[in-house]
Amino acid sequence: MAMYQNMLVVIDPNQDDQPALRRAVYLHQRIGGKIKAFLPIYDFSYEMTTLLSPDETHRNASGRNKPTHSLDT
């Protein structure tokens, strides 16, 4: 068996049982190394990009989400 020093384990937040984590702990107990858990989270703001204009999408992506005009009366 190859000697793994680092293991990346994907955690499924929709399940109580985590077979990948269980397997990684088993391997860690047998051969050592480090375990890093990864919890992927989908960012729903990506869905909004289909509703925005190209300029708005670019501003959001670059972190400059400022209004282009003022609503002062």
TrEMBL record:
Q: Where in the sequence does UniProt note compositional bias of the Polar residues kind?
A: 60-73
Q: Where in the cell is it found?
A: Cytoplasm
Q: What is its main location?
A: cytoplasm
The source's superkingdom equals: Bacteria
One annotated Gene Ontology cellular component of this protein: cytoplasm
Q: Which InterPro entries match?
A: UspA
Provide the residue span(s) of the region labelled Disordered.
53-73
Where would I find the UspA domain in this sequence?
3-57
UniProt-listed Gene3D superfamilies: 3.40.50.12370
Keywords, alphabetical: Cytoplasm
Q: Which family does it belong to?
A: Belongs to the universal stress protein A family.
Q: What function does the entry list?
A: Required for resistance to DNA-damaging agents.
Its name, as the record gives it, is Universal stress protein E
Tell me the classification of the organism that encodes this protein: Bacteria, Pseudomonadati, Pseudomonadota, Gammaproteobacteria, Enterobacterales
Query: Gene encoding this chain?
Result: uspE_1
